[in-house]
Prior knowledge:
The protein is α+β, with helices and mostly antiparallel strands. Helix content is about 30%, strand content about 30%.
Amino acid sequence: MDRFPNAANVDFHSPLDLSKAAAAVLDAEGRVSGWGASAQRLLGHAPEDVLGKPAGRLLAAAPGQRLSALCRTHKPRCTVLDLSCRDGRTLRAAVTFSPLEHLGVAATVVVAAELEALRGWEAQLAMLQGLATESTVGLTIFDTDMRVVWGNVSTDLELAGIAQYIGRPAADLFPEGEFISRHHPPDEDQIMEHVMTTGEPIMGMHYRGRAPADPVREHVWSCSYHRLVDARGELLGLFEESLDITERYRAQERLSLLVRAGKRIGASLDVRRTAAELADVAVPQLADEVLVDLPPAVIEGRQPPTGSAPGHSLLRMHGRTPEEFRTSPVSYPPSSPQAQSLGTGRLVVDAAPPEAPDEEGPAASHSCLFVPLLTRNTVLGLATFRRSSNPDPFGPEEQTLAVELAERAAVGIDNARRYTSQHAAALVLQQSLLPQHLPEQSAVDVAYRYLPADSRVGVGGDWFDLIPLSGARVGLTVGDVVGHGMHAAATMGRLRGTVRTLALLDLDPAELLTRLDGLVAQDSEPHANDGLSDEALGVTCLYAIYNPVNGRCSWASAGHPPPIVADASGSVALSSLAPGPPLGLGGLPYENVDLNLSDGSVVAFFTDGVVEDRRTDIDSGIDRLAHVLTWQRCPLEELCDRAFSSLPPGPQADDATLLLVRTRRLDTDQVADLELPPDPAMVAQARTLTEHQLEAWDLSELAFTAELVVSELVTNSIRYATGPVMLRLIRDRSLLCEVSDNAHTAPHLRRARRDDEGGRGLFLVAQVSQRWGTRYTASGKTIWAELAIP
């Protein structure tokens, strides 16, 4: 199909050309002596209607003397006449009168064409003249051998004279140029050959190079190639259109660079990587090298220093990964452009910068931009944009672009600095809230692992704890706050402290969770505005008490997965009791579950992150952890590693906390029990038993103090109880003295007056013991005191 279906309407022949115009011949008297077919087509008059008749009859106006004068002229004359058509129309025409006297014939040849068509043809000629002499579009004609034939004025100016290139191949015009559009062959000879062979034009190719008339600056042209054929359709060669689009191309590059900078700079929340991202974006499109200098405080996440001399105590960033990262100190004298930029907070241009002795970089720079990294009116550092291989100085648009990139980098560096600071604060908070060293005790061996889901922040809402209780018992707790980060960690810390406080009241697990549930519900009320109530609505907790004297473990759960128990034989048991509701919901009671554990049993307390994953259900996770516990004879640390190594690969969806305990039971010779009837005379027997037992334990030097404590505690119990009194002595890391009775009223420590006969017993107990207290049981209460073993 013809690419130009209307090409026949494009005709550069003049309307007055004899092949197209209306022609007639007039004799010396102005009569029509010749009438061509073209004249008949233009005016509609047949030859028989006009031949031999005066030509003035063809004029629309009175003939006058004008026509006679034109017929008697001795040289060609042109004029505009209004001619009468056969159909009555008046046609304004351009008419040329050419005398034939020199041929010995007294006649005049008249050629006429419609004036409007002539004016259109003249406009076409003016357009061609403009393209050749005034247009900024470069036009170059090549012959079939792809050698230069002709170029217009624009091409002549770019080549500093077209004449020197006539007859030379196209490659000689811009020997170091290249096509940067890749959707066609990048070689110009191939492009020309393709156009001449196929007739298919190639348009909009971007070409980059240096024009002979301006060899310093690099230009970009948009080039198009078209085949040239003559009137017979034979190939003449091709012509090239080239338009200098350097400024538009650079503007598009600047825009694309800003878009790329918006996507890349500051996405890592890491100071060193943000500095590297600035260099990655700006090189080589804007500069050959970008250097970033920051004060040490910014790199460490602290506030940038104020009041210090600009250019002092800066560190230059090197490397793009944490493994490659290093810094080198730089310092700029007060008179340097770098110090000026840092001091004023403005861009400084140095067209021919000298090399500083303490700077790394190319041997020479043609141009430098020193741009402060400014955000919120605070200078964070300095970015240096260098050009070494590119001799072009930084223009105003490029300076504006450098400032924009530096502002984006400054925001990213400031965000990274704040993140580093918050991360450090969060880690300190987490370390202060979670136990770093579990207290020494005899009831259990312990190992634990904690893996936050947000590995970047490193903090989450899981917690665990081991709390030494009276009677050599231990409290064990694990909990989970929904969410991650500072709020979840703060909520976790507050709840962990609350659990520890309630545990020291010697509450049983169900009672402790009931009280904790009330506190969480109170914090979750609409008027609670401490910022933690949202997290508190998603809190689960498990609390257990293990007694090494009888091997009994009691636990209760508030929406938390129950523990998994592996006994000494390796048999794994799962609890069938469903957990109670999460904390803060209320409405349902919490229940205690009692287990009798053999010596050496392993109990796993864990959070959802250990057994639950997006790709597997919680039952599969529990089975996986239970399988690990079948290796319960392994050291607890190894079991923890096995459990975490069995987690599915990839990022964690939730915090994962695992607390493993291996139970121990006290030997029977470490515990002495004596049941006493409620008789005051039994106080002496209690002292005697205490003395004998301490002798058996080689603790005779504690006998006096222990007898005093036992005497006072037994006396109080016999005085106020209605049933038998139980005395228990336990030799552990300290000497424990416990007296239990069926009364629910606890004695209170008070200061007796001088004339009081009693009231000094508990005061003496408090003075001679390390700790003392009261715990309530299902049948009454137990008063205990702890004495340090020398």
